[in-house]
Backbone:
């Protein structure tokens, strides 16, 4: 079998064995959602499995650093022991066993956070020195989404906004905090435009947010869309929700409006 044929056969097998874990799949990429707010995105190179290993991105906001290192090392060990052969089934089984062995109080989940709980989540004013604006909570099939916006004029501002948001326990426990920002700074008398984004495990979502901000010409602003996964796969709808909330909070704060 060619590499392409082996990839297709492996993906079909994984989808049949782990339908509740596989949130999204193409011939080149798989996204898995596990218990305990752990997710993994696997990218398959053209020459996998014969030559190159799969590339994985692991997201587990409540895992300690040493736990993440153990998991990374074990995943790499499995590949080394099976060079030239499909390894995704073994990787998924390893993560399931790892989660099963975690003590019940080792890590918190967000499943107990209802949409009402999320909506009532308030960041104390005494630590919100960036005047962060919060959009309405949107829910779809038990997943909750909320956009946050702040004025930023430097990377220091961006870091401070994330520090403030993550100081809120419900936001910190979210499955994803997807981020995009744009600001303009002056260097040696020249205006320099800065922009960047971060998926936080929701692959491809932040670049769509940044593209939208660019089209709206929203400058000196940062948007974070928080998602609490509710256990039901949303497929491409989740990207639509993230973009809609980004557009809404920008518009609500007078970004992207036509000037008369």
Residues:
């Amino acid at each position: 079998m060619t590499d392409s044929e082996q990839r297709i056969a492996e993906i079909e097998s994984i989808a049949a064995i782990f339908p509740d874990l596989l949130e999204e799949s193409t011939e080149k990429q798989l996204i898995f959602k596990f218990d305990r707010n752990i997710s993994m995105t696997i990218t398959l190179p053209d020459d996998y499995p014969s030559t190159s290993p799969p590339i994985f991105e692991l997201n587990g906001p409540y895992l300690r650093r040493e736990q993440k290192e153990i998991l990374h090392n074990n995943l790499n060990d499995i590949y080394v022991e099976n060079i030239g052969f499909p390894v995704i089934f073994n990787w998924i089984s390893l993560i399931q066993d790892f989660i099963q062995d975690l003590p019940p109080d080792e890590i918190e989940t967000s499943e107990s956070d209802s949409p009402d709980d999320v909506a009532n989540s308030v960041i104390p004013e005494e630590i919100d020195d960036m005047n962060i604006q919060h959009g309405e909570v949107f829910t779809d099939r038990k997943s909750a989404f909320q956009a946050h916006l702040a004025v930023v004029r430097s990377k220091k501002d961006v870091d401070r906004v994330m520090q403030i948001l993550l100081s809120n326990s419900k936001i910190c426990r979210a499955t994803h905090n997807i981020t995009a920002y744009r600001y303009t700074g002056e260097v040696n008398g020249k205006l320099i435009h800065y922009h960047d984004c971060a998926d936080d495990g929701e692959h491809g979502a932040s670049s769509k947010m940044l593209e939208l901000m660019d089209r709206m010409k929203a400058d000196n602003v940062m948007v974070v869309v928080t998602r609490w996964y509710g256990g039901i796969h949303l497929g491409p709808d989740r990207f639509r929700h993230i973009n809609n909330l980004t557009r809404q909070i920008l518009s609500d704060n007078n970004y992207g409006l036509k000037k008369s």
Q: What stands out?
A: The first strand starts at residue 22 and ends at 25. Strands lie at 22-25, 29-33, 39-43, 55-59, 133-134, 138-140, 143-151, 176-187, 190-198, 221-228.
